[in-house]
Amino acid sequence: xxxxxFTKKRKLTDKAIPNVLLENPAFAQDSKxxxxxxxxERRLDxxxxxxxxxxxxxxxxxxxxxxxxxxxxxxxxxxQVWQTGGEPSAANFETGEGIPAWQVRIEGRLLExxxxxxxxxxxSRKFSTLVKRMIVDLERDPNLYTEGNTVEWPRLPxxxxxxxxxxxxxxxxxxxxxxxxxxxxxxxxEQYKVLPELGSILGIKEDSRIxxxxxxxxxxxxxxxxxxxxxxxxxxxxxxxxxxxGDSFHFQxxxxxxxxxxxxxxxxxxxxxxxxxxAPPERPQAWDVEIKMEDTAMKNRMAAMLQTSKETAQTxxxxxxxxxxxxxxxxxSHVKKVFLESFAEDPANFIHTWLESQSRDLESIMGxxxxxGMTVRQEELRRSEFFQLPWVEEAVAIQHGVNLAARxxxx
Length: 411
Hints:
Elements: H1 19-22, H2 28-60, E1 64-78, E2 101-110, E3 131-139, E4 150-154, E5 166-172, E6 177-185, E7 191-194, H3 196-202, E8 206-208, H4 209-223, E9 233-235, H5 238-244, E10 248-250, H6 254-259, E11 262-263, E12 268-274, E13 285-294, H7 296-306, H8 310-345, H9 347-366, H10 378-381, H11 390-410
Antiparallel strand pairs: 1-2, 1-13, 2-5, 3-4, 3-6, 6-12, 7-8, 7-11, 9-10
Helix pairs in contact: 2-7, 8-9, 9-11
């Protein structure tokens, strides 16, 4: 097995250019542009990291949006006198044929936002998943019609209530019937009715619990009701003092205080009249209502921002490697230039100094040599600066390690 195949390739990551080149007047303009690019890259990386953290924090809170729910009410009739040519047909009480009857259909669907993109569209939710509870009251004589004049549908969790596009109510009869439809919608986040005592101060009638708390906090900051010393202490003004019954309260009590003035929201009330004596309208009646729900399109877009494609990551990595290689090439070229310039100025002295340096390094690494250190000039050994050179500490550490190893072998 060849170990060289498993040797990890060293990656160059240093993109800095030697200071000598940066300070060279011949490359002043290019060096300045390169430094500005590096600084821009650092600022961009910092901004992207900060935005990524903000998006992750926003995803944890699940964004919401306001959509329009269009509700349709229509009806059909069967077995009516005007349908049978003016003569009543034989009634079959087992199958229901021949008995005058009518049925009402309640449907609904979400309208697409005007500025939505095609790729952001998600499968539309069924109408029954948007309704928490529905009550239909029929204004009929209970003595004459015993089928029940109140129909209630509560949505239960689990498979007991499958998702449906609408509801159908069927009743017998041939007289006009007026009905009231009460719809309790499933908002996200859950909406509450703000009682007038608090709503008149904050200027809101219905909102989520977090929205009401935020509105109250904004009112406190706008009116400057925070204590100057203890910022967690709220000094109530005349309006809040009458509302909460105290001169001051702590910030932690805001949710409890707000809960006192929250109630279940009023239902959506729709009126509809069924007249079996006439032909049903060709088109059903429609109402548009607003509903708060999870913004899945925004959530998907925000999640896509956190995902970097494999091709983009590979391209960026390749560009970084190319820049690092070019920076390393400039460094090597600079070292070679200094080497050749020193050689050209004084070849004999340069060769002598270079050979002494190589010999000294070799003896320091090996711990011995044919000259036993005689290649080092005696003048240098007499100077303290010689023993403060960068390589001295490393040479001493190597020599000390060699001596300890030799002692271990001897013992």
